[in-house]
Amino acid sequence: MVLKEYFEKMKGTTKSPPMVSLEEIIWSWIGAFFGIGMVAYLNYSRFEHTDLVMIVGSFGASAVLIYGAIKSPLAQPRNLIGGHIFSAIIGVTCYQYFNQHMWLASAIAVATSIAFMHVTKTLHPPGGATALIAVIGGEKIHALGYLYAIIPVGVGATIMLAIALLVNNISQKRKYPEFWI
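Above: the chain's sequence. Below: its structure in token form.
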């Protein structure tokens, strides 16, 4: 009986959400295009021949939230900035202390970043990827050390936030953010 109840929970309790409007899809596309575009442009035009980077993979997931799911608590500015920066610091720390055991550094970085984001009310799922990138990233990422939390993570997330504030408030049907703190 216990096993049956366990598997029953996996059926879900609600139906899938309704389709969003074409207008919502277009605004999400525009926001993501300009947000990622700006960060990528800086990366490839200004930082490509330096030891710095400006874009990390977790920004793609942030774009989904801050341009496509703007009402989500996980998409709010506090979560975007705090979740990325805290997770970057945790990821760098885990790499520095546990890089002889990359599996362990990876697991501790992601698990600790999730716990810390919960405690600080900054839960932002892409933050888990930001922590993991700090551990498994290439030489350029590792060479940054704690600067990784500032450039690319802090500055990149701030640029994406600025674009979200501009684009998400053009339409009268959209409002961003829902809260700051």
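Helices lie at 2-8, 22-47, 58-68, 77-98, 102-119, 126-136, 139-144, 150-167.
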